[in-house]
Amino acid sequence: MKVIISNTVALNGGDAAILQAIVDALTAELGDETRFTVFDSQPETARRYYPTFDFQKLLYLLVSRAPNGLGPIIRPLQRSRFKAAASLWSRGKEAAARLLLSGAEADALQTYAEADLIVSTGGTYLVENYDIEPRLFDYEIALALGRPLIFYTQSLGPFAEPKHQRRVRDIFNQASLVLLRDARSKEHLLEIGVRPDHLHVCADAVFALDVDAQLTTNSVDESPAHDSEDRRNVAVSVRHWSHFKTLSTDEGMKRYQNAIASGVTHLVETHQAEVTFISTCQGIPEYWTHDSKTAHAIVDTLPEHVRAHVRVDEAFHTPQDLVTTLASFDAVIATRMHMAILALIAGTAVLPVSYEFKTTELFERMGAGRWVEDINTIDAQSLIPKLDALFAELPAVRALLAEGVAEQRAIALEGARKVRALVAS
């Protein structure tokens, strides 16, 4: 079986974890002979970091070529040309279609036409904070070729712009299966007229990541040695954020960074913690953002006696490596949602900082909503009491989260079984 996974951004560690988990889950359900082709935003670079995947360039980026200064005029024409070729190809006129295409474009279109399934990767990219046109173009090509289109676990919407509402409605009504990470996303689709019968709320794909069970057990005894045997080991994941609800980017980031700095200072001074800043988006110079930059900005504000117990891990880590690393920590303050999920898989307690509703809904489903901090309102007065409570209740929190992880994994694997059922039907 030939499966395309499209719309990936594998240089983002969270997206890489989603990709790996989808491949793990679908391989288990569809068989070891399943062959995956991954259409990514930066395939040449992604191959260097994840050499086992067959990466190709996203259709939209492959097609949207134009001389400098002529992009607004030429690019829409290029995309119309490619859509015309897809229409010809779908009607058996492959030779005519090839006359409209470059060699690379023809190869990509043939890969799509021969795919048994086209899976749009999981994540949060169908939201109007971002440019969704490249995604919609991809879906329209898949549907024009008559290929089964599946949406893996999405957090999406709302769609306020009428032009988006119409196209999203048309695409999702033609999709074969839609897996959503939360009830709110389902409501966003229902609100614009998407049929409900193929919409399923499912767990995030990363819960299906195939990791060695021995790596997902966590105890204080496994923590690395430090100055004192009593020292806690705490990981902190931070990121830059530009979409604060009531504050400017500068004001919001200042409050967020001050809160994290206060929390880290409290951990070192009160809980004798060793703190490591580590995240899913780091160690890849070719990627547009680096969480370690935000980490350094925070660490630079810490008192010297606190900085002595704080370090910034700037290295690249695969998702599996992160699970192994996070298993050695007692707790993780996680802003990146997939950093939180990888820590949960590792058996480590998590205090999440939510910047989108997906994180809040996840922890509420796991019965751990009380631990969520909102990036829009976080401050020292709210964060520090939660840190104290987390360490006071650490065994109970771990047990609660372990139950939630087991449940979320079962639900995530059920999503892959729905794909198998679709293939068998």
How would you explain this protein's 3D organization?
The structure is a single chain. The chain has 425 residues and is of the alpha/beta class. The chain has two domains: 2-202, Rossmann fold, CATH 3.40.50; 213-408, Glycogen Phosphorylase B (Rossmann fold). The chain contains 17 helices and 13 strands. The chain has a seven-stranded parallel β-sheet with strand order 3-2-1-4-5-6-7, sandwiched between helices. A six-stranded parallel β-sheet has the order 10-9-8-11-12-13, sandwiched between helices. Strand 8, helix 10 (249-271) and strand 9 form a beta-alpha-beta unit. The two termini are 15 Å apart. The model is unreliable at 217-228 (pLDDT under 50). This is Polysaccharide pyruvyl transferase. Residues 12-355 form the Polysaccharide pyruvyl transferase domain.
